[in-house]
Design goal:
The complex is a heterodimer of chains A (113) and B (113). Chain A has no helices and eleven strands. Chain A has strands at residues 4-6, 9-13, 18-24, 31-37, 43-50, 55-58, 61-66, 71-76, 85-95, 98-103, 107-112. In chain A, strands 2, 4, 5, 9, 10 and 11 form a six-stranded mixed sheet that branches. Chain A is globular. In chain B, 0% of the residues lie in helices and 53% in strands. Chain B is an all-beta fold. The radius of gyration of chain B is 13 Å and the shape is globular. Classes of the chains: A mainly beta (113), B mainly beta (113). Chain A binds chain B through residues 30-31, 33, 35, 41-45, 48, 50, 88, 90, 94-95, 97-106, and chain B through 2, 31, 33, 35, 42-45, 48, 50, 55-56, 58, 90, 92, 94, 97-99, 101-107.
Chain lengths: 113, 113
């Protein structure tokens, strides 16, 4: 079955880079996603990567995918206090027209001033 | 604002009761997904509909059911409620059931007393 794992907590200083890691088990995943959840709010899509890509960069965000090791990471450059939130990685399994996201437990990022 | 709306925002009810949660997808999106977020289970996929038809089923209890109407809004019905059903219920939508990203609504917080 599918299983997505993340470390629970990460603390960084403002201005430093943050790296949030994720491992997944299902090699048939098509897309992998990063979502952000702020306190009391819904899930905000940050970025995604297609499973045949190694890297994707989007402004301060860099996603690295190691398909062999089933390892996904999200790097946030120049981390700001507004980046403090829970970050979820998710893998998508699709079969025909059916799609399902399996989420990790989320990583609580705390940005210290 | 993702464009996905959910009502109500909060719902407090008693064990044994039945509730209906409502979701309106983004304009033009045909696919709707329901997720449950709880402290012990994390974020779990419940069910997916595409253009009125069920497409994928996740960890949805038999006491729960959903449907998608011709105007593409969706309802999630939860019956014989138990204390453990207290959670945040998210709806997401996407344009197609294929390779497309899901956009999440703000969620409905259900409290069962």
């Amino acid at each position: 079955g599918e299983d997505v794992e993340q470390s629970l907590f990460l603390s960084v200083r403002e201005g430093d880079s943050s790296v949030i890691n994720c491992t997944y088990t299902d090699s048939s995943s098509t897309y992998l996603y990063w979502y952000k959840q702020e306190p009391g709010a819904g899930l905000q899509l940050l970025t995604y990567i297609f499973s045949n890509m190694d890297m994707k960069q989007d402004q301060r965000l860099t996603v690295l995918l190691n398909k062999k090791d089933k390892h996904l990471s999200l790097r946030i450059a120049d981390t700001q206090t507004g980046d403090s939130a829970i970050y979820f990685c998710a893998e998508e399994i699709s079969s025909g027209s059916a799609r399902q996201l399996t989420f990790g437990s989320g990583t609580q990022l705390t940005v210290l001033p | 604002d993702s464009g996905v709306t959910q009502t109500p925002k909060h719902l407090i009810t008693a064990t044994g009761q039945r509730v209906t949660l409502r979701c309106s997808p983004r304009s033009g999106d045909l696919s709707v997904y329901w997720y449950q977020q709880s402290l012990d289970q994390g974020l779990q996929f419940l069910i997916q509909y595409y253009n009125g038809e069920e497409r994928a089923k996740g960890n949805i209890l038999e006491r729960f059911s959903a449907q998608q109407f011709p105007d593409l809004h969706s309802e999630l019905n939860l019956s014989s409620l138990e204390l453990g059903d207290s959670a945040l219920y998210f709806c997401a939508s996407s344009l197609s059931p294929g390779a497309d990203t899901q956009y999440f609504g703000p969620g409905t917080r259900l409290t069962v007393l």
